[in-house]
Structures are given as C-alpha cells and as structure tokens.
Phospholysine phosphohistidine inorganic pyrophosphate phosphatase (Podargus strigoides), 458 residues
Amino acid sequence: LNRIKASGLKLRFCTNETQATREKFVKKLQGMGFDISVAEVTAPAPAACRILKERSLRPHLLVHDDLVPEFDEIDKTNPNCVVIGDAAENFTYANLNEAFRLLIGMEKPVLIALGRGRYYKETDGLKLDVGAYMKALEYACDVQAEVVGKPAKAFFESALAEIGVPPQQAIMIGDDIVNDVGGAQRCGMRALQVRTGKYRPCDENHPQVKPDAYVNNLAEAVDIILQQL
Amino acid sequence: LNRIKASGLKLRFCTNETQATREKFVKKLQGMGFDISVAEVTAPAPAACRILKERSLRPHLLVHDDLVPEFDEIDKTNPNCVVIGDAAENFTYANLNEAFRLLIGMEKPVLIALGRGRYYKETDGLKLDVGAYMKALEYACDVQAEVVGKPAKAFFESALAEIGVPPQQAIMIGDDIVNDVGGAQRCGMRALQVRTGKYRPCDENHPQVKPDAYVNNLAEAVDIILQQL
C-alpha cells in the first residue's frame, strides 16, 4: 500500500463492509498497520444515502446496529423503501417479517440491498450474507432489489469518479472473483485476482469471470502494477 | 363435505400445513365441525418422509417444533440433506446459519422444501412463509430445492394414488390460484377456484392460471359437482 501511495498512483478502497461505519472499518485497518483514511473508502452505505437523497426515499433499515450512524442524516419517518445490509444478529424472524410487511404494503415496493454476497466466513464458521436475505424478500414481494456495492457497476463508477480516473486507466485488486474481479471488468476496468482471503482454487475455473491476471498476494499485485508504469 | 361423502365420491384433503402434525391439524378441523380423519389427509411432511426413506436421506430439520413428530421414524443422525418447512419462530439467524453450513458442506447439497409459499396471514399480520427462506438457502448454496407439497405434481399424484383415482376423473377445489388450481391442472385434473380464504379479486386476471370455474364458496362447488354426476 505504501509503495502504491509513494508511486503517485491514485488509490481507492472499495469495500462491501456493512457491519460497521467507515470510521470503525478504517480504525480496524489502521490498527493492523494500514495507511488508510475514511475519505479514501467507497462503501455501500454512503452510496445508498446518495440514492435515498436523490429519490426522496425514506428507508426502513434492516442493517447491523453499528451501521445505523451512516444513515444519521436521512429522514426515516413513514418509510417508503427498505434498505437491507448484512444485519447479522438483527436478521431475526420478527425483523424480517417487519421489513416484509412494509415492502408488501407499498404501492411500488423499493428494496435497496447493500451488496449481494451469499455468505462469508467468521471465526465461528460460515454465515449467510445479505444476498440470501435479499433473495427471501425479493421472492416474497415479487420485487427485484437494487444492489448498491460490489459488483454493481454504479458502485465502481462512483469510486472512479471520486478519484477522477476513467475505467480504462484503473485496475482492481480483489479476492472475490465475482464481486471484485467480475464487477470491475464489467465496468471497463482490468482486474487482478489475489490468491488470498476468500480465494478458492476452483475460482480459476469460474464459468463467467476470467481475471486479467492472478497474483499470490497484494505485494505481488503491486510489483506487477509498478513494473508496467 | 357431508354431501360429498354421502354421494359416494372419493375425497382427499390436500394441505400444505407444516406448522403441525396431521393429528393436530385434523383435531382443529374436527373442532370446527368437519368430518375429517388423519387417513384422509395428504400433507407435505409424510410425503417428504417417503422421499427420505426411498433415497436413504437423513435430514437435518428446519421445521416448526410441532411438526417434528411426523419425522419420528426417520434416521436423523449425520445429516445428508436439509428439510425446510414453515419453521416460524424457529427461523432464527442461528438456525438458518446452521442449515446453511450443513448444506454448503455437502458434496451434493439436497434441500427439500415442504411447500414454496411466499407468505401467509395470521391474526397479528403477514408472515414470511417457507418459500422465502427456501430461496435464501437456494441462493447461498447455489442449489435448487425439491419442493414437496402443492403445487408439486408428485404431491397431487400421491393424493390421487391414495384414493385410486386418475387425474382426469378428479377435481380440485381450492382458494390458492397457483398452488391449488394451477398445481392440480398441471397434473391433469380440473380445478375450481373458490372466492373465499386467500382468494383475491386480482386472481381472476392471473397471467398463467385459468380455473375451470369460479365458485363463491365450498357449498357452491359441491352443488356444481353433484349436478354433473
């Protein structure tokens, strides 16, 4: 990361993290020694807030408690849409029924999903991610969710806009073959798949997505990028 | 009901009820004055038990506590499939993660769903039904559930087999345009839509399903059937 910053290349962190505010997320990474600030992070919640404001939508939030502060400035009275994130322990039977009832009661139900991940791994095992619960509400209400976050094209485009770089001159580095690599490529960027994190060997035979290159880790990705400058 | 029984016509009750055993379900209807016995009921849980036995499947159950006795005779050790019913309060975050982990850990995940309903109405409001949670697990594990219960063809066929009647000589009476009427018709039966229960006027413009006739209630359905004998 320091080598990229020293090279003068523009850098943006694109995360689908919706279990915490950007502040908390950045503090965690800083604690691990990364040189990162809130202003450098593109995340689903602020992207959703822009959409809510633009379309005068007042959300009912089905999100993690720690994410709620990201929506502090949004009017949430008399909701006319539902925003679903990785609510984790908040994915209770009662909370899902409540979100469902609000949606089905709307003349034109609007469901905004902060990502469409299937599952993720925590120390105590695999957990269902926001995408699974999004599918449940989509089916029950016969609606299609609007996905904010990777792999949505608009999400990558807003990250690029924030640093003022066209997609052809940008490269994505990620561990998620579909959300990182596939999403960035559909937006016109090149993308490197790192063989760390959630990478699995079977990703190299993915039926839809072919990365521009594989690298064993982030350092190797930086080597390749800096060599080609 | 009494008029049908008196006429000598064969009768079968087809229900997607998965919040209680057939015993409990029948007692409830008897209490309301209906002449009905357990032996006359076709329900998803016993249909699932037949499949489990035939294919040597050992289920992990994500169902309502009151339904568990239907699976008393089934080996549930070391599960190699997941059976999901309308688990209601048992649809907790922890239980869904547990079912998901078992499925994703299987070499060939098998998910059996006791129905595919979207939602239903209770006195305290609308509730998400088994179909919504089925979709969540389908998406997370990239599998297709096998649906037992209406509108599955096999479900109607087993009801017909139990009374020894070919579909061309049978008629379904139901309030659910898709699960009752559509399912029965796809199986070669005729089907009457009653304008009671979960019927909604917009059902009469359903894009896929056209009942053989509409009736205002069960008594009118019996009138029509007895007239044509």
About this structure: The longest strand of chain A covers residues 190-194. Helices of chain A lie at 2-7, 22-31, 44-54, 93-104, 130-141, 153-163, 177-186, 218-227.
